[in-house]
Amino acid sequence: MAERAARAGGTVARQAFRGDLQVDTKADKTDPVTEADRDAQRQVVATIRAEFPDDAVVGEEDAVPVGTDASEQLVDRVPETGDAWVVDPIDGTANFARELRLWTTSVAAVVDGEAVAAVSYLPAHGELYAAGGEGATRDGDALAVSDRADPETFVVGLTGRYRPDDTGTFGDTCGALLDRLGDLRRLGSMQATLAFVASGGLEAVVATEEQSPWDTLAGVHLVREAGGVVTDLEGDRWAVDSGGLVASNGEAHEAVLAAVRAGLDG
């Protein structure tokens, strides 16, 4: 179902991609949203509800299928117990709005607060990353995290939003990662960046602040199922309410954590 829902929503988003978009903003001028985000989420939720009408759904946007009543609205947090679905209709809306092709439609199936299946679909690339409980795949082919063990060769994705008053933290974090590791990427889609760790294209991903469940749960499950490690900034197992995220191939996770801490300590 996660794959079917992600493909359905991703198809809606792809049809609007590089079209005539009305771009609005949410939290600030660098936090865009489009009607394609809402339309794609409506399609994802409708696809899920057709088979699982009573499951909770957590979605990024304030959009549910036309005709649903109040009892079928989205919930605003991942339930600690029971079945739920977590949806990001377009992860990387800023890329989407700028006609850049790196964005995903991501869906995670969650039981008692833990992801049990996840899909990140890259409609503009035609790639689909998926994980159940027996490994991760890309377009049906098995994935494994990178086997690099020398942290000085690591390529790390830095994710999350940074506001003007965070420039010191951002700069210090970048400097520490570059000083202790290999190179950095900032790709504009957290779910895609996590998928690239799962596929071995990146060795690690870092987010220094707490992230939304729709930005993380699917990708975290992909990384873990591909053999990687995901913790909070202290090295404890990452959970949806953790105050930061570090995902890696597991070969030198402590070195990545040490670099992050050095950056945050300034």
Protein model, in words:
The longest helix has 17 residues, at 35-51. The protein starts with a helix and ends with a helix. The chain is built from seven helices and 14 strands. A hairpin with a 4-residue loop joins strand 7 (127-131) and strand 8 (136-138). 32% of the residues lie in helices and 24% in strands. The protein has two domains: 2-142, Fructose-1,6-Bisphosphatase, subunit A, domain 1 (Fructose-1,6-Bisphosphatase, Chain A, domain 1); 151-264, D-Maltodextrin-Binding Protein, domain 2 (3-Layer(aba) Sandwich). With 266 residues, the protein is an alpha+beta fold. The model has no long low-confidence stretch (mean pLDDT 93). The strands form three sheets. The protein has a seven-stranded mixed β-sheet with strand order 3-4-5-6-7-8-9, sandwiched between helices. Strands 11-10-12-14-13 form a five-stranded mixed β-sheet, with helices on both faces. The protein has helices at 2-16, 35-51, 93-97, 167-180, 190-198, 213-225, 253-264, and strands at 23-25, 32-34, 56-59, 83-91, 104-111, 114-122, 127-131, 136-138, 141-142, 155-158, 183-185, 204-207, 229-231, 245-248.
